[in-house]
Amino acid sequence: MPVCRWSLGVPGPDCPDRISALQADFRFGRNFIRDTERRGITLRQIDKIVGWAMKSSQEWFDASPTAYSQTGGCRITEDNLNLYTANTWLIMPATRTPLQIGTEVFVKLSESEQGPWQVGKCKEWVSAGGHWLTKLDEGCPRKVELTHTGEEGGQAQNNGLEEQLSDDTWRETMLKPGASVSFHTGQKGILVEWIPPSGHWIVEVDGHTVNVAPKLLAASTGAWQCAFVEVLALADQPPRWFVSHWWGEPVVHFAACLRLHAATRLGTVLSQTGLDDGSGCRQMEADEDSPYWVCAYANRQWNLAGEVVMDPKKTSFYKAIGVAKSLGGGTLLILDDKNEVTGTGPGTPFSRVWCAFEEYTSINLLHLPLDIAAYHNKKAELLTSEATKQDRQRGDTYANANQSEREKTFPVVVLEHGMALQLEKAKATEDADRVHILNAIAAGGADLSEDELNKTPPSTHDNYDKVNKQLGSLFAVAAWRQGIESQTVHMQKLSTTLKADSWRSALTMDFCNCKQFDDAALVHLASSFPLGLTSLTLGMQACTEIGDIGVEKLGAAMAKLPLTSLSLNFRLCDKIGDIGLEKLASAIAKLPLTSLSLDFWDTGITKTGVTALARNLPVSVTAPDIELDYAIAGHFNEEREIVVRLARESAEEAARLAEEDERLAQLVQEAQCAHCPCQ
Fold it and tell me: 20 to 30 Å CA-CA from 69: which of 264, 379, 490, 650?
């Protein structure tokens, strides 16, 4: 069976003509930005990149070896137009001095050579755009040229001769080794192996010529290397948000997640655009000029050694998170969906150690808000660490409910991957990075020597466990309502994951209008509270299946917590009566509260329950926010005034007695001194 060398027939990313056309659209104005951490990128700039790449990628193919990419040697579609592709075809070619025939260059004759670079001149570009080795079926008509194959190419040979074929069938289908292929010539065959592009320059050095790969050349005069942000920006663009992500996310999905986040977190309200639900809220228009830090665009890809140093805490990544903190922003984690074309996802960042380090830094070292976005069912979804400007349009009363409504369609499969995070098993392209990062996380905030960074990291550590459990509980909270309403998540797994986060001090959840959130669901949630909670906010408005049993068990669970802030909304829960409220009030009396908000509007409670509530509220809560029916609100205020007055009188009496005791003690001391022989 003859072996065919099937060329795709288009130049590779290093082709000089292709680079010249690219740099005409993305021209570097030599506006260098000194500090990598201040090279944020805006939505306008992201949109320009995505639009250009979508248009230009019709002539692109995945240049990666198939060992690294399932679509190596395949056409580029929306599914595999990711940052790996963009880096190959756009970022790298646009961010250094272009080479042309006649360009004087510094030449490095070997990647491993340590000596000085030599000076030469570019004479000719030899294109090799990549090709598939293909076994042609026996009996196929020979319509291709036979040529000798050189030894240096490492190509499969057929008695010294190899068939050469150029055909654009690759534009019509996705390819992989072992697949059958039919060419437009009528020939057929089986794909064996994808050989990535390997074009080179013929360079004259000291009177003789050598073949040199482009990455081993640099212009000798007027040379520059920059980050892609420096091609786009005129000055510093300090980021308010740091983006943690995986390069394999399609750039279209990535941009959609950024746009949703910018609208939800940073946007402005459009005055004439109402939401479909008639709620009175307005659509948010994304702030297109607020920068995000994205490593692919911020780092100088031709000089990563200057950006990614051994100590993770001294890298551009860590510094950029610090800039985001200083500007009142946070970290946005973007998670990929399952991608059938590339065979990746969902939630790939959970298996990448750099992402683990970024989440660890954000949560544990710098204490930033962590928002999480994902692309699913052809749209972006977003979890935020708190209610946002978008959620608060109708006031704080509805903010948590709006946030819960917005987040309830976040993909469950991604949430489940988040709950199973094991950062100690995460991987890196360079294993040295994995070693350095795990040692840095194990050390906490301590600085490490070179030897300490390079030692074998511990296989288990309390700091690993802390990050795993903190992120896991975040996803458990986000999945809780979906688990109740759709039964698509194992609730016991959610319970175990939430309770395991012993570092969690605040919990906010909203189940407004959730008919499935009944007594059993409330009891299950209450049994899952982490024991370190100091702040608890639960929205249960119109959860009409909640009754006295659920409220009583909630109170019993809260009594075990060191709560200083409590907010419970039971509005329209008409099955709640005096018995449940009395039990809850008894539990509240035991708490060290300084802030309290309760809503029992339109429930089944009467003056009996209200009396118990008024008499049990801690006096330390000086201004409780209590919502009750008009018929009993006055009675509560009267009872509360009595309690406060009695407490005040008791405090005054205690102070008077203490003062008398102090005066009496002083008199006794004076009497003793009067009879002392030494006087």
Answer: 379
Question: Which residues are within 8 A (CB) of 649 and not within 5 positions of it... i.e. 6 or more apart?
Answer: none
Determine the Cα–Cα distance for residues 556 and 550; give it in Å rounded to an integer.
Answer: 10
DSSP characters over 132-169: EEEEEPTT----SEEEE--GGG----BTTEEEEEE--G
| Contact status, residue 287 vs residue 40, Cβ threshold 8 Å | no
Residue 303 burial (CB count, 10 A) = 14
Q: Measure the CA angle with vertex 190, ends 195 and 249; round to 5°.
A: 50
Q: Which pairs with CB-CB distance under 8 Å and at least 24 residues apart come from 428-432?
A: 428/352, 428/353, 428/354, 432/310
Q: Strand, helix or coil at 128?
A: coil
Mean of pLDDT values over 169-189: 88
3-7 vs 161-166, strand pairing mode:
parallel
Residue 43 banded pLDDT, cuts 50, 70, 90: very high
Confidence of residue 524 (pLDDT cuts 50, 70, 90): very high
How buried is residue 68: exposed, middle or buried, by Cβ count under 10 Å (0-12/13-18/19+)?
A: exposed
**What are the structural domains, with CATH classification, of the chain?**
100-127+198-223 (2.30.30), 505-673 (3.80.10)
What is the full DSSP assignment across 623-657? Answer: S-EEE--HHHHHHHHHHHHHHHHHHHHHHHHHHHH
